Amino acid sequence: TLWLPDELLVLIFVRVGIIHATARVCKRWKRICGDREVQEAFWSFRWHAYANEQAMPRKFNGHEKNLCALAIGLDGNLYSGSADRTIKVWSTQDGALLRTLTGHTDWVRTLAVGPEGNIYSGADDGYVRVWDGTTSELVGSIFVGGEINAVIANDTWLYTCSGRHIQVWDRASGRQETTMTNDMAESYTTAWSLALDHDKLYAGYSDGTICVWSASQFKRLSTLVPEWNDSGRKRNDTVFVLALGPNGSLLSGLESGLIRVWVDGKERKVLRGHTSGVRSLVVGPNGTIISGSQDKTICVWPPGCLEPIVIRRHRQTVRALALSANGRLFSGCYAGSLLTW
Fold it and tell me: CA-to-CA distance for 269 and 251, rounded, in angstroms?
């Protein structure tokens, strides 16, 4: 049963940043808002309000074509990549468009934030562009070749996936260190997604499997194979997106609309809510899982829930999601619209 203290009910319709500011100056609200059960109830109430159209998201205007990627920089700003070949930088506080970055000559498919704060953008022009996280100036370029489906970085290496390969690049020099190929897969298999957890690099493929690589030794450690019979879906269920989940789990969003939850290399459960491919995943406060799909919906999965809260506000595929440090959600779709919740 969802519940909240009476004085907090009104906060369902207030921006998260204002709530945090209020809690800092009001002792009672600070104590109540610090309660885990209240936090979970607040999040559930908030998403139910959006699902029932009692609360409305705010729209940012800027991109002319499909919005493909979102990332929150270390500076707290929001970065968005689009089929209009640009990257836009937004204030997460007031939604102001701060800068527009140009340099790519084709769709910007993926964005990643490096540990040093630089922004890495991968595009269909075959290049990864490197942007200074403070000034937004272009500070480097790496030619990968082919469409770049995912980019991720750690302290030393930059990892990209293009075609069936995972390429490893030295971040300092921009030189390619090695290429990792899933020799267990068919030649037509494509690498679609990446996630990094310390020395484990997860790569999701178009045949539905996930390879676990050593991020430092560049060796395949294991392969996660789903239990195909649980869904009655086709065997080649592309792993469009990967994300680190709550309590050390790994989440995989699939072409079929399923979300698989992996723990210690084993499939533990399957989340069903979408009717088409899951293209974006983020994990919010208290382990809330939020997913965006080709079915134009956002599903919110509170902790322990197998039935999602379904939000229908986008007109096209929800291609990208991002969460700010204070729990504010941003979503982008193929219609070019960017919403904040």
Answer: 10
